[in-house]
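Holo prediction. Input below; ligand is hypoxanthine.
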Amino acid sequence: MSTPHINANLGDFAEVVLMPGDPLRAKWIAETFLHDVKLVTSVRNIFGYTGYTKNNKRISVMASGMGHSSIGIYSYELFAKFGVEAIIRVGTCGAYQPDIGLYDVLIANTSSTDSNWAHQYQLPGTFSAGADFDLVLASVAAAKNKNVPVHVGNVLSSDVFYNANVDAWKKWAEMGVLAVEMESYALYCNAAKLHKKALCILTVSDSFHFKGELTPEERMNGLSRMIEIAIQAAETVAD
Ligand code: HPA
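Structure of the complex:
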C-alpha cells in the first residue's frame, strides 16, 4: 500500500511517530536513539524509519519538511492511512520573549497562527489548536525527570519565515506568545480533525532579542535533550 507521498505498507509505522523537519535529522535520530531500525519510506528523500527505544518500545521517526503544507500532507497520510495514533514534532523555533535563551526547550500546549489553514473546516469562528493534554503532561514529566527546564505555552505557527512586516512578531510577543515556528498549527488541526494525538516540542535556535552562536557540541546536546524528552513522552503511547 502506498499514498502519494509515502511508499510504506500498513503496519510499517509504529503507533507513535517523532517528526523533525529535516530528513537528515530523522536519520540521525533513528541511528542515535533507536535500535533494529528499518527504513520504511523515502519518497522525495523524506526518510521514515521504524525501530525500538532502549526500553524496547516501537516508535517511528519521519521528517515533515518545512511549513504547514508539508507537515499537513505527511501528518494527514500517517494519521488517516497508516494507523498512526500520535505524532510528536521535534523542531526548532525563534524566541519571541527576552527571557527565553538559545537552546531552551519549549512545549507548545497551544498554537496560534497567521495562516488560513483552518478555513477548510468552514467553522463559524476561530479554531484554537492545542496539543494532546496527556502528551503535554508526559513531556513535562520527562523534562523534570531529566532536570531540563522547559517553557510551556503558546507558539506562533507562521506561514512566513521572511516577513515583509518586520514588526509583526512584536504583536504576538505582547500577547505572551513564546516563539515562532511553522508547523504546529497544521499538525494540531489534522490531529483534531482525525481524532488523533499531537504534540510539538521545540528547541530555540534563534532569538528576536539577541544574536548568539553555539558550538556544534552545544547544538547537538541541545537537540539530544529534546529528543530524549520526546522519546520518553512517546513511550507512554507506543505499541
Ligand atoms: N521563524 C520561523 N520558524 C523558525 C524560526 C523563525 O525565526 N526559527 C526556527 N524556526
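The pocket of hypoxanthine is lined by residues 92-94, 158, 161, 180-182, 205-206 (CB under 6 Å). That is the main takeaway for now.
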